[in-house]
Specification:
By secondary structure, this protein is mainly β. The chain has strands at about 5, 10-15, 20-25, 30-40, 45-50, 60, 70-75, 80-85, 90-100, 105-110, 110-115. Strand 4 and strand 5 (about 45-50) form a beta hairpin.
């Protein structure tokens, strides 16, 4: 069973940066994809980025390209989300997720709050 624990959220001024971390355990297959999502109050959960655990290929929706970067430390079983040029509308709870490629994301962390002050 995959377990995910996020950290690194907090308060930041608009234009600032944060790096979120997601410590993973139970990754027993190489064909995992790790991802970051977020959910703001009253809004649906939103996909931000994903990375293949083996190989490191990444994908992003258009609206975050150039501002958010996903990466992983294979040896430490940790995935990161570097967020730059943060805006107040980036305020949300950020979640790490995992799936075996070709299946739905079914492992989720507890979330970490990011608040961007204007």
């Amino acid at each position: 069973q995959v377990q995910l624990v996020e950290s690194g959220g907090g308060l930041v001024q608009a234009g600032g940066s944060l790096r979120l971390s997601c410590a993973a355990s139970g990754l027993t297959y190489s064909s995992y994809e790790m991802a970051w999502f977020r959910q703001a109050p009253g809004k649906e959960r939103e996909f931000l980025s994903a990375i293949l655990w083996s190989g490191g290929s990444t994908r992003y929706p258009t609206f975050v390209r150039g501002r958010f970067t996903i990466s992983r430390d294979y040896a430490k079983n940790t995935v990161f989300l570097q967020m730059n040029s943060l805006k107040p509308e980036d305020t949300a709870v950020y979640y790490c997720a995992a799936r075996v490629v070709g299946t739905p994301f079914n492992s989720w962390g507890q979330g970490t709050q990011v608040t961007v002050l204007s």
